[in-house]
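Hi support team,

I'm filing this because I wasn't sure whether my run with zinc ion finished correctly. The job status page said complete, but I'd like someone to confirm that the output block is well-formed before I use it downstream. Pasting the exact inputs I used:
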Amino acid sequence: MAEAQRSNASSDGRQARPRGRRQAQPPPLEGSPKTLMAIMAHPDDIDFTSAGTIAKFCAEGWTVYYVLVTSGDKGTHEDLTRQELAAMREQEQREAAAVLGVKEVIFLGYPDGWVQATPELRGQIVRLLRKYKVDVVLTWDGFRPGFNHVDHRNVGIAARDAVYPAVRDHLYYEELMAEGLEAHRVNDMLLAGSDSPDYFVDITRFIEKKVDAILCHRSQVATRDREEMLKRQKRQGKRPGRRGNFEAFKRVHIARPPRQEQRTEAPAAVHEEPAPVGGR
Ligand SMILES: [Zn+2]
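And here is everything the job wrote out:
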């Protein structure tokens, strides 16, 4: 326990410890490669918020998948059809993902601006989490109280509802069993765009990769000036009293009860409450 807390305090991924909460903090994600799926609404969402973290994890040996719920087919003032814009933005997203070392980019094809947190979308996410045996989900904070894009909000909510409890209880989307996709646990989420972030990833060594990924989104970025973008990203990634550059998330960790750690058979559909780190 003391060891975990000590390593937590000295890691890159720093977490503010909320006052009055006695729960032990989980160890930082950095340094122990797993499988991460970033699920967001539009091509460029992941790269603007999280490309430094993705680059860092890929460099550490993580397996990273991108899931884009829409292909961003409304994001232009140019004279383009929705189909032309979607094709362009999918290509830009694939190029950015390749810069970072992402294994695969998946587009779900929903229309831009019309995303709802439906059982169908939740089921598509459950299917992907079970198929790729994902350990960590990175998505939008769907519950942020201030101004938020409808697609960001609904993708965040659908992804969170997929992680708990649908992906872990086999009777949710039981038709997936016929494909051999069994219940699976995702115990960590990183939420981008939160107004109360508590997990900060040091991306100082990966800021140039982040800039290169962002500049792949040519239809969305006005500047072609790499130095200007680098300056802007360094400025945005500052934290008070800290050197270097950071990306900020809210971490949600679902604690597994001790009795389940020792189980060897398939876990039952236990509805223990998720324990959000840093709390809301
Ligand atoms: Zn977006």
